């Protein structure tokens, strides 16, 4: 009888062990089914990138051999990443306020569009290591140089910002008594300012400088804004894709450190000066 109990106990423990083993097996196979984004990108041989090509020198359109082409430092940067990953890069151009929506809906693999990695956006997306961090600036007409010299001077004035950009927040928080005007595309903001239908606009410095070189009647105002150190440009990634993030981070980190990114910006700045179509 004792022996019998022992045998039963042994059999039971085997069953329990088998069940445990079975459990971990199930876990493994379900993990294999939800393929990593990095593997998926490598398998299809293509990295699909969401961008808003209205943001020289980071991404803009110009004629290359007579063909309308998306160019810029972000574009060169992603092409270099694609090369390192051994995949082709395909850009999907859209309005800026649609870029992160496209990423959320898995219509693109990553979003690269001079995107500031804000705490708010980090709730919904992961971000790569930061690669550029230009300060916020106010752009005005040269004819207002002597009157628009302080935040208060813009009270009640129309101040433009790109729709969906953090510049909307800059206007709301730092120019609270001005009238915010949200406009979908940066080149249209510039047109409105040139025409005087808005009085000022907020852009990050590098972009402001690029558009200014095409628009001799505009200038950067001598008004100090606060820029958030923690909101540098970064590549937006789907949440939880750690292997994709790791791979992109290591490539990007190297490009930041060896000066490639700065070189891409300098080159794109020259290209935008020469031949901006938008
Ligand atoms: N850095 C700003 C933001 O993330 C503006 C980015 C606009 N980018 C563009 N390609 N238009 O909100």
From TrEMBL:
The keyword Signal applies. This is Polar amino acid transport system substrate-binding protein. InterPro entries: Solute-binding_3/MltF_N. It comes from Candidatus Enterococcus clewellii. The keyword ATP-binding does not apply. Residues 46-268 form the Solute-binding protein family 3/N-terminal domain. Keywords: Signal. SUPFAM superfamilies: Periplasmic binding protein-like II (SSF53850).
